[in-house]
Design a protein that fits this description.
CATH topology: Formate dehydrogenase/DMSO reductase fold
Radius of gyration: 20 Å
CATH class: Mainly Alpha
Number of helices: 10
Number of domains: 1
CATH architecture: Up-down Bundle
Shape: globular
Helix content: over 70%
Number of strands: 0
Low-confidence stretches: none
Strand content: under 5%
Distance between the termini: 14 Å
Amino acid sequence: MELSYWSVLLLLLKLVVYVASAALAGTLVLRLLNRNNKASANNVATFNNYIKRGALVCLSLALIASILQVPIEAGAMAESGFSGMTDAFMLEIAWKSVIGEQALVRMPAFLLAIVAVSTWGKYSPLFNTLNILVTVVVLIVITYSFTFTGHSAEKNLWIKALLVLHVLAITCWVGSLLPLYKSCQLLALTEVKRLMHQFGQLAIMIIVLLLASGITLILQYLDTVADLFTSSYGQLILLKLLLVSAMLMLGAWHKLSLVPQITEEHHVLTLKRSISIEMFIALTVLIITSIFTTLVGPPI
């Protein structure tokens, strides 16, 4: 695995896009779960504003990352230092490549996502319903853009669809963690318990989709089970599976034990600490995913 500063920059750009996609998906999930909340207006408004601000920061960074993607790719090809980012010939090549196509899809998608999140809850119920539909479409478009490059670029439409489902599942799960963590601070005990219970119900479907699509994709990328242990790509997959398993165990503990016991403040504090650990593991999973989709390929 050859590591250069260009590789690190491209990896960071991909990580920013992953985090922003998760933030958008998490915002969507929490909007839907909290849509008919009739609790204290101040608490709910504060919670919703926190979700919006966090998503807008992430989406703005992802828009910048999408703009920088082509010049950084041009600089990597030019191999002439940072001046290569402005090399007209290399920029033309980059724009005409799948990198350029990916950037042209992502830039308007992230811009539209910023508009959708900014106007969330400001107008009529019909507008908010349309806003949610637009957010769903934008999220799918951003997720589909991951199939332009990497290990699925040359795969058939079926594999690309599986990858889209896999990324949607993990972004919905990972992106919901910070809002759920923050709910422990901003919402009343009864509302925290309700929200956690509803997310636990949804998480069952997310996890089934995540595991089914993930296992199928692994079988497509690896020729033999031995590749899991003998290749760098397989070993990173094993590490990712181990971390996802840890997240599953924490999620099961939340659903079966912690959430049903929420009756006092110290129960919420225990849940909050556990979610913080899950967030750290989730970030590690995103970093590993960025590494093996940027720097490491499947064994040939």
